[in-house]
Design goal:
The complex is a heterodimer of chains A (401) and B (507).
Chain A: H1 3-13, H2 15-34, H3 42-67, H4 75-90, H5 104-128, H6 133-152, E1 158-159, H7 163-170, H8 187-213, H9 221-243, H10 250-268, H11 270-280, H12 282-287, H13 292-318, E2 320-321, H14 329-339, H15 351-371, H16 375-397
Helix pairs in contact in A: 2-15, 2-16, 3-10, 3-13, 3-14, 3-15, 4-5, 4-6, 4-13, 5-6, 5-13, 7-13, 8-9, 10-11, 14-15, 14-16, 15-16
Chain B: E1 4-15, E2 18-29, E3 33-38, H1 44-52, E4 61-66, E5 69-70, H2 76-81, E6 84-87, H3 99-103, E7 110-111, E8 114-115, H4 117-130, H5 146-158, E9 164-168, H6 176-191, E10 195-199, H7 203-209, E11 212-217, E12 220-226, H8 234-242, E13 261-272, E14 277-288, E15 292-297, H9 303-310, E16 318-325, E17 328-330, H10 335-340, E18 343-346, H11 350-354, H12 361-366, E19 374-375, E20 379-380, H13 382-395, H14 412-425, E21 430-434, H15 442-457, E22 461-465, H16 469-475, E23 478-483, E24 486-492, H17 498-506
Parallel strand pairs in B: 3-10, 3-11, 6-9, 9-10, 15-22, 15-23, 18-21, 21-22
Antiparallel strand pairs in B: 1-2, 1-4, 4-5, 7-8, 11-12, 13-14, 13-16, 16-17, 19-20, 23-24
Helix pairs in contact in B: 4-5, 13-14
The chains are: A mainly alpha (401), B alpha/beta (507).
The complex binds adenosine-5'-triphosphate and magnesium ion.
Amino acid sequence: MGFFGTARKLMQQNIREYGMYIALFVIMIIFTITTNGTFISSRNIVNLVNQTGYIAVLAIGMTLIIIIRHIDLSVGFLAGFLGAIAALGMADSNVIAAGMNLPVYVVIPMTLTLGILAGLITAFLVAQMQIPSFVASLAGWLIYRGAILVVTEATGTIIINDDTFNAIGNGFIPDIPDIGILPGIHKLTLILGVVAIILMIFNEINDRKKKQTYNFETLPTEMFAIKLIFISAIIGAVTWVLAGYRGLSWTAVVVLAVTLIYHFVMSQTVLGRHIYAIGGNPDAAELSGISVKRLIYVVFGSMGMLSALSGILFASRLQSATTTAGTLFELDAIAAAYVGGVSAAGGVGKVIGSIIGALVMTSLTSGMNLMGIGISYQYMVRGAVLAAAVIFDVATRNTGK
Amino acid sequence: MDIPLLEMRNITKEFPGVKALDNVSFRVTKGEIHCLVGENGAGKSTLMKVLSGVYPFGNYEGDILFNGEEQHFRHISDSEKAGIAIIYQELALIPELTVYENILLGHEIKNGFVVDWNETIKQAGIMLQKVKLDINPAAKIIELGIGKQQLVEIAKALSKDVKLLILDEPTSALNEKDSENLLQLLRDLKHQGVTSIMISHKLKEVISIADTVTVLRDGKTICTLSKKAGEVSENALIKNMVGREINNIYPPKKHIPTKDVILEVKNWNARNPALGRDILKDVNFKLNRGEIIGLAGLIGSGRTELALSIFGNPDNYQIKGELYLNGKQRKFNHPRDAIDSGVSYVSEDRKGDGLIMIQDVKQNISLANLKELASQGLVVDNNAEIKIANKYKTELNIKTPTVEQKVSNLSGGNQQKVCLGKWLFVKPNVLILDEPTRGIDVGAKFEIYTIMRELVRQGMSIIMISSELPEVLGMSDRIYIVASGRIAGELSAQEATQEKIMHLATN
Ligand SMILES: Nc1ncnc2c1ncn2[C@@H]1O[C@H](COP(=O)(O)OP(=O)(O)OP(=O)(O)O)[C@@H](O)[C@H]1O
Ligand SMILES: [Mg+2]
């Protein structure tokens, strides 16, 4: 088979996966043209990434939930509620009666722990009491909605004054001292980008070598080289764009870290395999010695933690906790997961896919905002894109491998 | 009176990496019972799916003539309209619906716009009588055993106006008596003018019922044998199917089991709280190291429930009694405990409880023992996984282009082998096999029996649940007969006969 033959075969086999990247790429091109380049400006992209952050982490958790054939509707208001708790935790009790005067280093772990607890409660209802997750989490939706109102009742919006906390949603990683070259470019970001490329190449080559020692099929050399160049170019381009404004934001760092960890767990570990297995066929998984109940706790617990993280990112970005924080986050997260290719039937879905899905959805919002399109049409366009993504997914499901 | 009802000419059907049918020709005469036989993966089910429109016209090459006319079925409903009804290898009933709802699903009896339930129930009752199934039409499918479900499937097919009835391994899940019922049913239908095509791996049945047999091998038609011409015999079938002769399908015993007891169950009682009834009553049995014991009995006698109650009780029965493994009393609260202690269970229902159909062969084989493939039990070594999967692919002769093929794309028998591979990879001391050769061709059966013999020679102990009496007799060192949740008797291999077993099983 010639070079193009191989390329075509790869394309056919992986059309579902590549489809999302292509969609994101096309959307970005369209908005770049319609906004005369504003969309692709460093400043806008950095903003876009920061806006995606709090939905992206929810989308990751939701991906796992949907993979095991459940749903969690409570995550939006749980995020909002825990954001308010975090704000109260740091608030000065002289200003707000319920303030706890806690340092940020206590507040963040505390909030994440509360998130895990909330997730475990949902898991208890689902696993132990056998309540459908839709209903259990709808109850959570109502309860946390009420809880936000209770917490913010006295003061309305709770202002956050902690600079460290606020930096998570608004700050950027520091740069190395100015050495006189590349003025106006964030050099540490560039260095990190280069390191990422080197690590990626190293990792891929290593992987290929291992496969070859087993005599397994690998990509032909020129194909492999092109793949490496292509991925390097993308990482390079993103890094360059980010470095052109203020560099990597802390939000981006957090999302990247969460993405990498979850991607690793889902694709490489026994735990990940077990999660896919119970999504694929819970009965068979149970008989294979996998405790479905235990994994429901793990997955909902992780969702709760990520809800807390989402709440922290959002509160930090607004530098305050508001009464409406978290509204519709759950639906954005679910939409992102579906655009990213998870299947409602369970057992199928990728973490990276959901991140791309989240980027697609935020790009749409951001692009349409820049174009000055009204909010009403924005909803319709996003709805249409969601439907189109899922149609594409279903249509290509049977042609893949 | 040799009018062809169906003629399939030069049918070729390819899947990525597999030529499932290669220029197959197949001809069925009006009014006959035509059996289609061949090894697992030979293309039998695929041929029937081409015929019934599951793979629509244009998706395959070749011509289909039915009733003298060329047909272009684009959907199953097209072939149904033409009078072809097919019962798939994998049952297609809706578990949560009642029997009558299932029987008339898709062609509901209506009174204006609304379903006429009374008439539906009456019609369903008539259909059930036709298949001699004495159950309440209002029972849910999920409450029925797999054997009764099969009969409901047939009742469902009969409720349509059929000229050609296709049954893909209808008796694989049935016991002798139900199978004989079913075969008699086919003969009756034949007298009423219904032509049938039956796929089966049970050669005795084929010989008893077929007027004509077509043998497929590797996607090609090997031959068509006629009963009238005296061409149909077990030897002829095996030889054409496998391409070589197998003289004794049950390989001879090579060693004598030890007398040390590895597993013992005492005064074992179980109650299913969901159904609210006792399913096992005072069960006592022993398994020695290196021994194969057979659990014989009717379908629904409680053998699967017994296995599950030992294997970590996944269905949460209320259990009373004692379980000893290697002389130590044990209690398994989850299949995991049982697996970790060296007990494995290969389910009878591979699609429902055995495999993850959307995952590939290697992921299914590794699932119950991922720890072994993971460094520190955490990170899975993907390459080692492929290697292991390939090892079992070779050992069990699983027919698939690669171990990265989804199991839903494998033929039924090959799926069964994947199940077996999965549990062999766990390397258990006690292996419980629930209907291990259901839907498996003679050649592969012989391979599996040979593997079982080899496993016990290495010191493994096997509990084999089987509704095929010849298999129970051919493979077991000792036989327990289970009836209505009790052990109705124990027979040694020497004293056991089909008659004795049936006598104990039905009393
Ligand atoms: N959807 C599919 N995609 C890819 N390959 C398939 C698909 N369906 C069947 N095959 C392959 O086609 C071949 C024939 O399969 P088929 O199911 O017709 O076999 P069979 O004769 O019915 O076997 P069995 O007795 O085990 O049921 C097998 O090699 C199988 O793996
Ligand atoms: Mg088949």
